[in-house]
Description:
Elements lengths: L22 H7 L12 E9 L5 H15 L11 E5 L4 E7 L3 E9 L10 H4 L11 E11 L8 H8 L5 E5 L4 E9 L5 E7 L6 H19 L3 H27 L6 H43 L2 E2 L6 H95 L6 H29 L7
Parallel strand pairs: 5-8
Antiparallel strand pairs: 1-4, 1-5, 2-3, 3-4, 6-7, 6-9, 7-8
Helix pairs in contact: 5-7, 6-7, 6-8, 7-8, 8-9
Amino acid sequence: MIMNEPADRATPPLWGLNIYPLRVALDREFHARPYEDVQLPLRVMHLVMLSEPSQTEQTHEHMARLCQHFGVATRASGDAAHFSVRCSETLSLRWERHQEFSTYTFFLSGAFDEPFSNVFEALLPATFLGNLPGHLLVATQIAFESASTPERSLSQLHELFGTTHLVGSHASNGSAGVFSDFLAGRDGFSRILVRDRHLTGHQPGRLVQRLLDIETYRALAILDFPRMRLLTQELSRMEQHLSDLTASLAQDTDHEHDKQNLQDLMRLAGETEHISASSAYRFAAGRAYHALVRHRLEELREMRIEGLPPIHEFLERRFAPAMRTIEAAHERLEHLSQRVARAATLLRTTVDVALAEQNSTLLASMDQRVKLQLRLQEMVEGLSIVVIGYYLTSLLGYGYKALAYLGAPINVDLAIAVTIPFVLLGIGLTIRWRRKKLMAARPGASP
C-alpha cells in the first residue's frame, strides 16, 4: 500500500478563526521525511538519479506502473514529492523528489547469506530499473545484519569487501558496527555493511537513513568537482590576461591604447560574470550538501575500532580536500571579479582625467579665440565710429548748407569742422554705454 503523509486528514476549525492557508503544509513539513520502520536483518538498495523537474510526471507514471505490477494502489499525484509503497511482505520502496535529483530506496527484509548479492533485480519488473528517468549518480547497497548473526573478524571483512582499505567504526555510541570501502564494485554499487549490536526502537531506520544521506550528499557536494579543475585553468588564463592589462595601464602614460584596454576589460568582466552566474547555484548547493554530510557524520556518533579509520576521518581526508578545491575556485572567481572591477574603475578614471585635460585645453583655446574676437570687435567698433561719424557729419553738412542758403550767417566748412569732434565723442560714448549695459546683463534680466 502507499504510505503517503495524511494529506487528506481533516483539520478541525479553531473557534472560527481565519486559518493561514499554508499552516497545515508548514506543520507537516516537519514530518516530511520520517525514518523507515525497518525489520532486521535487512538489505537496502539506494539509487540517486539526476533529473530535471520536467521529468517528475514521467517518474510518477513509472512508479504507477510499478505499483500496478505488484497489484497495489497508488496515490502519487503530480505534485507529490515523496511516497512509500510496500510491494510485498518483505519488499518496500521509498521515493523522494528533490530539486535536482530523485532517490529510489528499496528495503528487503529477511535473512541472507550473501550480504551484497543483487537480489533486487530479480524482484523488480524487468524494465523498471533500466527505464528510470534521469542519469544515475549514486548506487549503494546496505546489508544490515542482526545481532544474532555471528560477528565477522577484520580478516573476514577485508575478504568480504575485497580490499585492504576498509573504513569502519562503532556507530550510535557503540550500538552498531558500520564498515565500507566507499568504492563502487564491479557491479557498480558501493557497499556498506552494518551490524546490529544493541539498537532499539527506530534506531536502525535512523542509522540507515543517515548512511544513505552521507552517500547521497557527498556525491552531490562534489558533483561539479571535475568542472572546477577546468575552471581553475580558465581562471589562471583570465588572471594572467588581467595582469597584462594592468601592467599595460601602468606603462601607457600617453593613453594611446585606453580604448582597446577598456574593451578588453569589459570583455573580461563579461566572461567573469558569465562564469559566476553559471556556477553560483552549484557553489551554493555544494556548500549546503557539504554541511549536510558533516551533520550526518556528527549524528553517527562514531567510536573508533582499533585498526580501522572511522568514517568521518576517511571523509575528512578524501572529501574535505575536494570541497576546499571547490571553495578555492569560488574565492578565486570572486577575487577576479573584484580585480576586474577595480581595474575598469581605474581605467575609466584615467580616461576621465585625460578627457578633462583635453577639455581644459579646448576651453583655453576657445577663451583665447574669444579674446581675439573681442579685440577684433573693438577694432571694428573704432572703425564704425569713424564711418558713422562720417555719415552723420555729412548729414549735418547738408543742414548747414541749407541754413546758409536761407541767409543764415554760417560758415559751412567751419561748422562741419567744429561738429566732427562732438559727433565722434557722442557716438563713442553711446557705444560704450551700450556695451556696459550688455556686459552687466544676466540671464533672465532685461538689457
